[in-house]
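User: For documentation purposes, I need each entry recorded in a consistent format: the amino acid sequence on its own, followed directly by the corresponding structure tokens. There are two entries in this batch. Please keep commentary to a minimum and don't merge the entries.

Assistant: Recorded as requested. Entry 1:
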Amino acid sequence: MLYTEAFARYKAKLKNVNWSVSAENSDGELVISLWKHRFTKPEGNTIKYFDFVTRWKGPGSNELKAKLQEAHANKQVIRPVIARTSDVNAVEAGVDASTLKNEFFVREDWFGTLTNWDGDNFEITFVRRSA
């Protein structure tokens, strides 16, 4: 699935398709592109995602930081666009991931909450439930 198609599955439109990694949808949910390798193993119907904004490069990181701050303040529901990359080490080193082979998919049955946010580090806890 294309990146923009994955966001569209949640009725979200990216502000800029070249650098945005998050967008709000028409239901008031925050949709974020998240790396598959940063998810924990599921525990029951719960799975967690850990990351930090300063690892993300470019204007998309500033937009993401503002969106996470808003999600934290408003207890906004978060929906995942899951990105699987051909080179995890490059992503972790901060290489421009748009130059890598990436695949995108959604989990429409996952609804997340920002459970930790310190202005950089963040944790999202997703619970599987019917959409």
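Entry 2:
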Amino acid sequence: MSDDPKPPTTPSEEAGRIGLALARAEGAAYGLALKHMTGMVAEFGEEQRHGDYSVALALEKAEGLYMWSGDGLEWREPTTENLHVEVAVRDAADGRFLPALDIDVSIADASGREVAQLRVPFLWHPTLYHYGQNVAVPVLRDATVTVRFPPPTFPRHDEVNGRRFLEPAEVRFGPVDLSFLEEK
């Protein structure tokens, strides 16, 4: 198809070989931090490729967050929430974080009944940009977590490499064991 984008690693007027190498190095560094989160910090972590995107999910017990209020940043501990949902979306070609996405997550039980639906906003973290939110869910042993987002609407540089991220994504993770949420 003539409208297909060229590989995003093609040198162009906007992206020379050095710039593309730097982008891949940035993606590799981000990937190391992401593997640390999904493989060592989270109770559940997995990453899947979906077209131009690489979508990672990490789940752990709910945690406190600074939230903006009328008086500035305010620390808030979870009240009824028991699960912290973290999503990272990367450029599948170079591994860099994709900002400005509208990410929705749904969690369903083994029968497919939805038990939670949430929007996960951008969440600043000292080591890894990601999207995240706390939510209250029942303890499930075989949940399905679905991550959905429309294509990003941000402008793109580069006539050669910029025609990408055109499709929405829907990525399913499961079965996911949430028994780590049980009180001990």
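Summary note for entry 2:
The first strand starts at residue 44 and ends at 50.
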